[in-house]
Design a protein that fits this description.
This protein is an alpha+beta fold and 113 residues long. It has one domain. Strands 1-2-3 form a 3-stranded antiparallel β-sheet, with helices on one face.
Length: 113
């Protein structure tokens, strides 16, 4: 009888650790995707040389991210533009609320031109 009880209790811990591992894998995958997206956006900003509202709306719709930039909308060639993109992730067991995954990057205007 105690053997069966031990198996049942240990299965609760095994399931919890499997769900935790699944969460960690999903967060890692989502952040990797966000990092790749930030590299692509940095390339686009450097090549086009603009960060206006129309361009930001296009980025947010195409890449399913939220874009923030402190710099002016029309930077000059050679200026450094810093930008932050983020997405929200809803974890299975790590937290009750959503987790904000953030990638902050810098790019030089005209570098890829």
């Amino acid at each position: 009888m105690s053997y069966n009880l031990g198996i049942i209790i240990s299965m609760i811990f095994v399931v919890a650790f499997v769900l935790l591992g699944g969460d960690m894998y999903c967060i890692s995958s989502a952040y990797s995707s966000l990092d790749n997206t930030s590299i692509a956006i940095g390339y686009l900003i450097s090549k086009t040389g603009r960060v206006d509202n129309e361009f930001i709306d296009q980025l947010e719709n195409n890449y399913n991210i939220t874009f923030e930039s402190i710099n002016p909308s029309s930077p000059q060639v050679g200026e450094v533009v810093d930008f932050t993109i983020y997405r929200f992730y809803s974890p299975l067991v790590l937290s009750d609320s959503q987790i904000k995954l953030v990638a902050k990057r810098y790019t030089v205007i005209g570098y890829y031109g």
